[in-house]
Write a structure and sequence with these properties.
Elements: H1 5-24, H2 36-63, H3 65-69, E1 72-75, E2 78-85, H4 99-119, H5 123-146, E3 149-157, E4 160-161, H6 167-191
Antiparallel strand pairs: 1-2, 2-3, 3-4
Helix pairs in contact: 2-5, 4-5, 5-6
């Protein structure tokens, strides 16, 4: 299904009318829900947004792969490239042809993260896990559907290039950092 500017305009117009109707009836909307169940649902939506952002960006790069093969220098230290990663992070294990199994493993991990989010109460941990969940589902989907993950972000300093990565990898990393930093805060509180 192709969307054009007119379709998007109609959709946005409908959304605008729906929101105005809700507010006219006195519906109060909060950016961050106060109940834990609503907050967790909100975090699942964040995971869905991350998955969507990841898939849209990979689709764009794939559709323009001829252009990205050559590499596009955005700014010094940052290129956009097209890489088919059949392994795990940084292309490790790419010669083993296990991408499909890595995808299934990503989905299993995602299932456990969903259960974990539902069980815990710490909001920093929930946000961190929702970032990891969105990224894991994004890369897992690619591995099962295409048997590879499209990586396109290339950071470099001088002649040293960090292995190419994508938005899913970025959100997994950010989520892991938030989770680890949150556990340091928790340990500090427990020691007091």
């Amino acid at each position: 299904m192709e969307l054009n500017v007119i379709d998007v305009g109609k959709y946005l117009n409908l959304m605008d009318k729906a929101l105005k109707a809700l507010f006219a009836k006195g519906v109060k909307m909060q950016l961050i829900p106060t109940s834990n169940a609503a907050y967790k649902f909100y975090c699942y939506l964040i995971s869905g947004f991350i998955f969507s952002l990841d898939q849209i960006s990979k689709y764009f790069v794939f559709q323009n792969s001829d252009f990205f093969f050559q590499g596009i220098n955005l700014i010094p230290g940052l290129n956009l490239v097209y890489v088919q990663n059949k392994g795990i992070s940084f292309g490790l294990l790419s010669s083993l042809n296990i991408s499909f199994y890595l995808g299934i493993f990503s989905f299993l991990i995602s299932f456990f993260i969903i259960l974990w989010i539902w069980k815990i109460k710490n909001r920093k941990e929930i946000i961190a896990l929702s970032f990891i969940l969105g990224g894991a589902i994004g890369n897992g989907y690619d591995r099962v559907a295409s048997l590879y993950v499209i990586d396109f972000i290339d950071f470099y300093i001088g002649s040293f290039h960090w292995p190419a990565f994508n938005f899913a990898d970025s959100f997994i990393t950010i989520g892991a950092i938030i989770y680890i930093l949150g556990s340091f805060d928790k340990n500090r509180i427990l020691k007091k």
